[in-house]
Structures are given as C-alpha cells and as structure tokens.
Amino acid sequence: MRILVVDDDPAELLLSSIVLKELGGFEVIQAQNGMEAVECAKRELPDAILIDFVLDDIDGPEVFQMLQKSKDTSEIPVIFHTAKTDPSDVTRLIALGAKGVIGKPFDPMRLAEEIKRILHHS
C-alpha cells in the first residue's frame, strides 16, 4: 500500500515515514507542505494520505478540500494526524469526509496499525 505522508515538521515526517515503512510495510511518499501534497497526490495517486492539520502554507483541511475537488484524487482516503484532537475538531474533520483522525503525540509502534484499522473500517 502506498501512502502519502504530509507534515511540515521534518522530524515528524521522518519518524512517521520510517515506522510506516519498517513496521507497516507501506511504500511511503513524502510532502512537506500543502501545495506539495496536492501536486504529489495528483502525480503519485497514493492509496491513502496521512496529513497534518497545521502546515506552513495552507492547512490540512484546505488541502483535503482541494483533493476532494479533483476527480483524480477525490476517492483517496485521507487521515488527519494532528494535535487538534478536541472533539469539535475531530467532528469537523470527519464531517469534511476524512476517514479518521490520529492524535499527536502518537505511539510510533502503533501508527501503522491505527492507519490500517481506520482504512479497513471505512
């Protein structure tokens, strides 16, 4: 399974990518900001996208809405990876169409299993 990981924090991006590849068996594609994520998703057509809520250029929900408007990327499942885990934030993201929300900080040993669980139940 190919997953696009989007995070503007280089350490978070690296950690997520390593654990998803090594522990989850994912093929990982990386993007460091929102516009790069949109371009990469259209070019690579990953099986899923793990995206941070807060990014340097445009925020995760805006990226998600841009992906939803493109026929090429509208069906790609999106999971938010964020410290914004207040119930109202989670409800808003799910209402937008996100498949799930994984909170930060996160347990690196469980990240791949959480993603697989969310994707399996969608």
Overall description:
- This protein is of the alpha/beta class and 122 residues long.
- The chain has a single domain, classed as Rossmann fold (3-Layer(aba) Sandwich).
- The protein is 44% helix and 20% strand.
- The protein has helices at 10-22, 34-44, 60-69, 87-96, 111-120; strands at residues 2-6, 27-31, 48-52, 78-82, 100-103.
- A 5-stranded parallel sheet has the order 2-1-3-4-5, sandwiched between helices.
- Helix 2 (34-44) packs parallel to helix 3.
- The longest helix is centred in the first third of the chain and has 13 residues, at 10-22.
- It is globular and about 35 Å long.
Q: How is this fold's topology laid out?
A:
Elements: E1 2-6, H1 10-22, E2 27-31, H2 34-44, E3 48-52, H3 60-69, E4 78-82, H4 87-96, E5 100-103, H5 111-120
Parallel strand pairs: 1-2, 1-3, 3-4, 4-5
- The geometry reads as globular
CATH architecture: 3-Layer(aba) Sandwich
Rg over CA atoms, rounded to whole Å, is 13 Å
**Structural class by sheet pairing and helices:** alpha/beta
Number of strands: 5
Quaternary class: single chain
Identify the CATH class.
Alpha Beta
Q: Classify the beta-strand content into a percent band.
A: 15-25%
Q: Sheet bearing the most strands, described?
A: 5 strands, parallel
Identify low-pLDDT runs: none
Distance between the termini: 16 Å
- Helix tally equals 5
CATH names the topology as Rossmann fold
Strand order of the largest sheet: 2-1-3-4-5
Mean pLDDT: 94
Number of domains: 1
